[in-house]
Amino acid sequence: MRENIFLQIYTEYSNRIHSGQLAPGTKLPSESELAEAYQTSRETVRKALNLLFREGYINKIKGRGSFVLDMTRMDFPVTGLISFQELTGTLGVTSRTLVEETVLEPAGSLLARQLHIAEETPVWKVIRAREIEAERIILDKDYFRSDIVPFLSKEIAEGSIYEYLESELGLKISYAKKLISVEPSTGEDQRLLDLKQYTHIVVVRNYVYLENTVLFQYTESRHRLDKFQFVDFARRVRR
Fold it and tell me: How far apart are CA 131 and CA 85, in angstroms?
């Protein structure tokens, strides 16, 4: 237990920051105060603080201490590969997936270029509206190579496709390239989403690769402008 006390400190403080118990700008207790509170060494405390720092929970200012960073803008990470179920689980919101279409069809010229396959190659097309707090604010259009994903169904699409791909098919999903733009909404957007007065939409195009570097999925994730901020956390590396 004593060997893992730094993880206890990290978990307790990261949870308090996520829950809002510690507001952005709050100064954490000093290393000495934390060491006394947890009956451990300053080295152990420093290890926990360094982990909080690396994960973007706090900023450490030399001579002043550690301060809580604003985590509320990190609800939809740009760089992560996270499923809708995983995302809404961390946000703690009421959500629902509405499957509009799950069909196997020839790629055609546009998808063939995106997935680097022949036009006649069958691909799985999955269209899903994502409802959060009773509003349909995300439209996900997913396309999977059928030679890698041989079967999909509406039932699978209603849950987590990634969980099915990893747990049932044993695929090792590794990384993605993402392109983000703001574009005029389409008729499909207006039909399947609650766009209100918004005439434009945020489009995130994902090119998703397996561990063996094979491109197997292309996705257009279309978001209502007012609902999501796409953020990342970065630190400047001093050279």
Answer: 12
Q: State how far the Cα of 185 lies from the Cα of 190, in Å rounded to an integer.
A: 7
Say if CB 115 and CB 218 are below 8 A apart.
yes
Closest to 206 in 3D by CA, of 145, 157, 140, 152: 140
Find, among 115, 138, 142, the residue nearest to 127 by Cα. Answer: 142
- Note down pLDDT in tens along the chain; length 239 residues: 455 898 899 999 998 988 889 988 899 999 999 999 999 999 999 999 988 888 778 888 888 899 988 665 435 555 555 556 656 555 566 789 999 999 999 999 999 999 999 999 999 999 999 998 889 999 999 999 999 999 999 999 999 999 999 999 999 998 888 899 999 999 999 999 999 888 999 999 999 999 899 999 999 999 988 776 666 656 665 66
Q: Is 24 helix (H, G, I), strand (E, B) or coil?
A: coil
- Number of helices (H) and strands (E) in the chain: give both, helices first: 8, 10
Count CB neighbours of 80 within 10 A.
Answer: 12
